[in-house]
Structure formats: structure tokens, C-alpha cells
Amino acid sequence: MTAPAGRGRAYGVALALLALGGLLLLVGYGLVWATAQVPLLPGADAADSALRTKGFTGRDLYPGAAAMGWVVFAAVGGIVATRSWGRVGVAVIALIAGLTALAASVDFARAPGVAVDAAVSALAGTESYVASTSTSSWFVAALSGALVALVAAVVAVRGRRWPSLGRRYGRTPARPADMSAWDAQDNGRDPTDDLVE
Fold first, then answer.
1. What is the chain's mean pLDDT, rounded?
2. pTM of structure
């Protein structure tokens, strides 16, 4: 396999893995990470009102980190559309998005009750502390964030040498000396440019 073919294959695999990572981030943050008993009426205290069971998704608990899946999808398009240092810059943005998603999911795993209490307090309009049960769904987001960060780091290091749209689809003109006068005219060249006066 030639080097350009190998680079093209690595480029395609990296794009596919980034897109997969972005999709899994959206799925992971859309899953229920915890359930808690929350007041039935907004603004009521959990201790003094009727309660209902509510499931909290990763998006409910970490809305900023949940948006990183969309950032990764935008980065995939950016990597396709750019080359050289522009591609490195887009890869760095994807790397930050992956690390942000990973950090939020690890933060939840470390102290799930804190994240749920903050979400319930936002719902109730007052500081609330509730009993909650966490799930392992955060792990999907953690793995996805790690995947995105790893692939984005590879793109940042190696992506400058990968093909770009302009180079892949642009025509490489033949040298004027190798073309007939008719071919030169077809290519928009003046066939008399090479004549020595």
C-alpha cells in the first residue's frame, strides 16, 4: 500500500471514529444517569410537599458538556473542509470537546448526589437535598469523550499530511511543453506563451 493511500485510509478512519464518538456522546448524555424524588410542584420544598420520581439525564445534569457531541459533529465537517494548520486548530477544538464531556461524566461518577441536588435545586427554585439513585449510563459518555479526545489528538498530530478537498479534487495541469496547442487552449492556456521571439 502506498503512503498516500495509507494516509487516505487513516483520514477516513479518523473521521468515522470522530463521528461515532459524537453520536455516542449525544446518546450517552441523553440516557438517564440518576433518579430522585423531587417536589411535585415547582418551588415547593422536598420535605414539605408531595414527591414524584424523576429521571435525570446527563443533559439535565451537565447541559454544557452534553452539547459537546454537536461540537464534535461540527469538527468533523471542519476537518474535511480545512488543511494544514486549520485542520490542527479544528482537531484541538474537538479534543477540548472530548475532554469536557469526559470530565463531566467523571465528575458525576465521583459525586452523583451533588449533581442531582444541584439539578433538583434548580427545579425547585430553592436549595434542595434529595435521596437519589445513580445508574451506570454515565460510562457511555465517559468512553465516548475519551474516544473523541484520543482521535482528535491523532488528527492534531498527523492530520496536516492527510488529503484535503482542494488537493484531492483539483486538476493537476500538464506542463505546457507536453500539451498540444489545442490541449493548451482547452486548459485555458495561451499556446503561444512558450514561443521564443
1. 81
2. 0.71
